Fold:
Amino acid sequence: MDTAIGYSPAAQTLRNAGYKLTTPRLTLLDVLEQNGGHLTSTELLALVAERDASIGRASVFRTIDLLARLGIVASMVQDGSTINYVLMVGGHHHHMVCTNCRTVTEFEHCGMGALFERLEREYGFQHHGHLLEVYGICQNCRALVAM
Structure:
C-alpha cells in the first residue's frame, strides 16, 4: 500500500491512467489483493458480493475488462475451461506448472529483460507486461519417480 497516497500500486495505476477510483473498482482490487491475486470469476463475484452486495455482476465484469486493458489484471485458462483472473503486480506474473500433479508455483524474477529489449530493437515492439507459465515436473514428482 502506498501510504503517502493511501492506495495500492494497482489502484494508483488505475488513477494514473485517468480513471476514477470508484467503490466497485477499489472493492474488486482489494478482493484480488487480499486473496493472493488468483480468483475464478465465481470466486470473484462471491467475494465482491460479500463485501458490497450493491456491486452487480455487470459492474464486476466491466471493471475486470478495464483492469485487463490497463495490464493490471490478466485472465488465464486453467484446466482447459476455468478462467482465473490474476493480479499483474508490476505488469507481470509468473508460474511454474507441474504437468504431473498440476501444482502451480509462483516465482518472482523471470529474467526476460534481454528478450524484451531484443523485441523492441528488432521489431519495434514496446513491452508493457507479461504473463509467463513454464510447464514441467516439480521437485516432489521428480522425487517420486526416482524412488
